[in-house]
Specification:
Length: about 500
């Protein structure tokens, strides 16, 4: 895809250049300036070529990577094996030759050297040379030959050295051991040589076996990796194919979950969970649109009726009442639109300014601004409770809870604020003395456009969104909002919001 994008960009650049060329002065500038393709350096061109050669599939990359690692490991192992084998064979040859040279050196010290040294096991030839470079004795295959080494030892004692000797009439290398010892006639050097025929043959055989076996093993590894990777990625392809076919109208479909209990199975489970959330979100959105349309239809119809009546009634004295009703319905429409907009912002997870707030003062101020409520509000607020959040949104939570309590209370509304030290949360309770909330409906009241007493809620101006907005805002602040049982001696509704505590409020 990167290459296609680059190609399209180049093609687009060419078109632009052509168009500019036909435009007078602009064309002159285009002709004088180098395009991105023309300005590309050789290194950039080489990188583009490597990107084209790079395998694009996971299967191909895994096969190539495994083959490369195995090839490097086999090369290192083969070189190490050849090196160890050659070193071991050389060591054995040198040990045998050294033993023979030492034995002949002991004979030289004792003055019992034979004119012709017999061949022995472990040495293909023997030669004894004094410090003047004269050959004292040798094996039959070196009879009449000069010293095998032109430079002779000058230090008394025993000296060991190894060297390659050629030109002795053999097809293979010779490993020569030199032992220098002190005799009655001066320094004497004994040279014992052994053929490396067996070592060379073993090296050649091993190298040939590795030359045949390594490519076969490498091909086997590549084929096994390709096959295993293909089987491992088969569920991924099935997941991809299924997701590719799922449209916004097929969110009920799910990807297959393999019975392997591995990362791919967990990926499928996660994908299905995501599809569950998408389906739920889609259903919620469609339901929200349907409910919003239903809720908007009634006030719009009432508003239109009132306006038509105002136009049809010839009596000017009746018009103020009709216009007042129309204004009330307009206000209700405005409030409903504002609530819908706020819910849309919450659903979109729009960021909001977060600061440290004195929740006690925020609740006290929200209650103070409602002095004209139908039912008086009693407060019992703990001091110095600090939370982190948006002042506007947390004020909206308190206001919506008070609106709900005022809508259904008979004689009193109580607001309590305390700290739950064990949970590290601030607890806000709004309690009214109304009819209360049945246990079966304590979760349903937080659904959007839900009214337990629809007619009464409409009469009091409720839209069915207040508690839904309050819960969403509480959750947006990592808190909760629930309907809980009231005290036995205090019947009515009890709504409890819990918010995480923060540090001291900033002034």
């Amino acid at each position: 895809m990167a290459e296609a994008f680059a190609a399209s960009g180049v093609a687009g650049g060419g078109s632009a250049a052509s168009g500019a060329a036909g435009g007078g002065s602009a064309g002159g500038r285009a002709a004088g300036a180098a395009t991105p393709t023309e300005a590309a350096t050789p290194a950039q061109a080489a990188r583009r070529g490597l990107r084209r050669l790079r395998p694009m599939t996971v299967r191909a990359r895994a096969t190539l990577g495994a083959s490369a690692v195995v090839a490097i490991a086999l090369a290192i192992a083969s070189l190490s094996l050849l090196g160890l084998l050659d070193a071991n064979l050389l060591h054995n040859a040198e040990s045998d030759a050294e033993a023979q040279a030492t034995a002949v050196a002991q004979l030289a010290q004792a003055g019992r050297l034979d004119p012709l040294l017999p061949p022995t096991h472990g040495a293909d030839f023997l030669q004894v040379v004094n410090e003047q470079g004269q050959v004292l004795t040798a094996s039959q295959n070196l009879t009449g030959r000069p010293p095998v080494v032109a430079r002779h030892a000058t230090v008394p004692g025993t000296v060991l050295s190894t060297m390659d000797i050629s030109g002795l009439g053999q097809d293979h290398r010779q490993r020569v051991v030199q032992v220098t010892t002190e005799t009655g006639g001066g320094l004497v050097s004994v040279y014992a040589g052994t053929s490396l025929r067996d070592a060379d043959a073993a090296d050649e055989t091993t190298a040939a076996a590795l030359a045949v076996g390594m490519p076969l093993l490498l091909l086997t590894v590549a084929w096994v990796t390709w096959w295993v990777t293909g089987r491992a990625l088969r569920p991924v392809e099935a997941i991809r194919a299924e997701v590719a076919e799922i449209s916004d109208r097929d969110l009920h479909r799910r990807v297959p979950v393999p019975q392997t209990h591995d990362e791919i199975a967990r990926l499928a489970v996660t994908m299905n969970a995501t599809l569950d959330r998408l389906e739920s979100s889609g259903h919620r959105q469609r339901q929200f649109i349907a409910d919003a349309s239903h809720e908007l239809r009634s006030p719009i119809a009432v508003l239109r009726t009132q306006l038509e009546v105002a136009l049809a009634v010839p009596d000017p004295a009746a018009r103020p009442e009709l216009i007042t009703g129309a204004l009330e319905d307009t206000e209700r429409l405005q409030q409903l639109a504002a609530d819908l907009l706020l819910l849309a912002r919450i659903d979109a997870a729009e960021p909001h300014a977060t600061t440290l707030l004195d929740l006690t003062e925020l609740v006290r101020e929200a209650v103070r601004t409602r002095r004209g409520d139908r039912v008086p509000v009693d407060t019992e607020l703990a001091e110095g409770i600090t939370v982190a959040g948006s002042r506007l949104w947390l004020t909206r939570v308190v206001t919506n809870l008070l609106d709900n309590a005022q809508r259904f209370a008979e004689h009193s509304v109580r607001v309590l604020l305390r700290v739950d030290e064990a949970a590290g949360r601030a607890v806000l309770e709004v309690v009214d003395d109304g009819q209360g909330i049945p246990v079966a409906d304590r979760e349903r009241i937080f659904e959007r456009f839900t009214r337990l007493d629809d007619a009464r809620s409409r009469d009091h101006g409720g839209t069915g969104l207040g508690l839904a907005i309050a819960r969403d805002l509480a959750q947006h602040h990592r808190g909760t909002l629930t309907a809980e049982a009231a005290a036995p001696d205090a019947p009515g509704a009890r709504l409890v919001a819990r918010l995480p505590l923060a540090g001291p409020a900033q002034g």
